[in-house]
């Protein structure tokens, strides 16, 4: 049996986390995505991982048989410089991705469940994310209790209130 492990993200994991950010941003895989290096230099994406380890950053990495296959991370943003799913300075914004060959195996759900538990333990009251309206991951977020809070330009900001289980 193949083993799945979920561990905290370390600085050694950041190249993989950046690759997962690219996967999250260009999930359609249509062939017209920019090269990864160019995409991750764009300020609107770079803010999700640059200077990782600041206050409010938390992340988890999924490994199957020792190889990284997915990541989930949260970051709090200031009002003047924030991500797509920003709600307010107290609400962490969640990002998540699984490698294309490991999608559909429940890894995203395991990562999301673990991150929601971690956020509750840390005292977060809610968490947000942004998803394009046609992204299949939207149904995963809805299953985990995220609801639409705002919509703009084909994307939805979703919010989940965190209460102790």
Question: Notable features of this structure?
Answer:
165 residues; 27% helix; 4-stranded antiparallel beta sheet; alpha+beta; single chain; 3-stranded antiparallel beta sheet; 7 strands; globular; Aminopeptidase
Residue windows where pLDDT falls under 50 for at least 5 positions? none
- Main sheet summary: 4 strands, antiparallel
Number of beta strands: 7
CATH domain fold name: Aminopeptidase
Order of helices and strands: EHHHEEEHEHEE
The CATH first-level class comes to Alpha Beta
Q: Categorize the overall geometry.
A: globular
Based on the structure given, which CATH architecture is correct?
Answer: 3-Layer(aba) Sandwich
Helix content: 25-40%
What does the average pLDDT come to? 92
Which structural class should the secondary elements be placed in?
A: alpha+beta
- Rg from Cα: 15 Å
Largest beta sheet: strand ordering: 1-2-3-4
| Structural domain tally | 1
- Beta-strand percentage? 25-35%
CATH superfamily: Gcn5-related N-acetyltransferase (GNAT)
* Discrete helix count: 5
Termini Cα gap: 30 Å
Q: What features would you describe in this structure?
A:
It is a single chain. This protein is of the alpha+beta class. It has one domain (4-161): Aminopeptidase (3-Layer(aba) Sandwich). 27% of the residues lie in helices and 28% in strands. The chain is built from five helices and seven strands. The longest helix has 15 residues, at 107-121. The protein starts with a strand and ends with a strand. 30% of the residues are buried. The mean pLDDT is 92.
């Amino acid at each position: 049996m193949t083993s799945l492990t979920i561990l905290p993200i370390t600085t050694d994991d950041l190249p993989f986390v950046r690759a997962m950010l690219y996967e999250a941003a260009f999930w359609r895989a249509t062939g017209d995505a920019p090269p990864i290096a160019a995409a991750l230099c764009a300020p609107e994406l770079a803010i999700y991982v640059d200077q990782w380890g600041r206050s409010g950053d938390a992340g988890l990495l999924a490994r199957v048989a020792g190889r990284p296959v997915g990541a989930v991370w949260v970051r709090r943003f200031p009002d003047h410089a924030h991500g797509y799913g920003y709600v307010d300075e107290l609400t962490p914004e969640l990002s998540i991705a699984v490698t294309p060959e490991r999608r559909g195996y429940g890894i995203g759900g395991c990562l999301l469940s673990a991150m929601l538990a971690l956020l509750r333990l840390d005292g977060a009251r809610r968490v947000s994310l942004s998803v394009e309206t046609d992204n299949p991951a939207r149904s995963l977020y809805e299953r985990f209790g995220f609801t639409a809070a705002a919509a703009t330009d084909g994307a939805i900001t979703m919010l989940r209130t965190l209460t102790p289980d």
